Model the fold of this input.
Amino acid sequence: MPDVIELEFNQKIDRTDLIKSFRFYPKKALSFQPGQFARILFNQNNLSDQELNKYLSFSSSPDKPYLEFTKKISQSFFSQKLDSLAKGDSVFIQAPLGNCVFRKEYKKIAFLIGGIGITPVISILSYIGEKGLDSQAVLFYSNKDENQIAFRKELNRWQKDYPNIRVIYAVTSPLLKNKNFFQGRINQEMVARELKDFRERVFFIFGPPKMVEAMSRLCDEIGCSKEKIKKENFVGY
Done:
């Protein structure tokens, strides 16, 4: 059973017009692996309350002094509770959870990600870059339009600062302005063209079940080894 840990809310950061990050400082040290997640407990008295107790991935590196979670804000009770936190408020979490994690022995990795599935990827890429690891990472990141790209500044900066991190943006909107982005969804042709060594790579797939299913099928169709596909369905979608 994971530990229940008290956090103190510190800061809210807008990532897009709908996606926000929430930073907390733990009251005691928490060790987790890049790619893991936590269960936020807004109703400790009823742990089976699925409206107020939900799972969110860490979007911060394990080396940071704070813990960060990132969510697309909706009108749900959970979203509104999270969005209404004031600095100094206490929140309890169960953590760490999840086995779809990055390991230092993975020297070549790739991510097939859409929308809010980016959150655990940020934890992994931040960890690789800031630790100076030699793992080569390629991120395929799909969104409806350019305004929906969360962590765009961070991803662009990491590409400049860390030569072993590469990001390939795909936008499904026909109103694409950036000529360096792909228009359309992540597909077999895109992955095979941009990633010649895909058979050597460990693939990570995070996100809602339909996205995970589609990207898993893509990996099967291009001939990826099943043992090298790591996937995590986001609960609650």
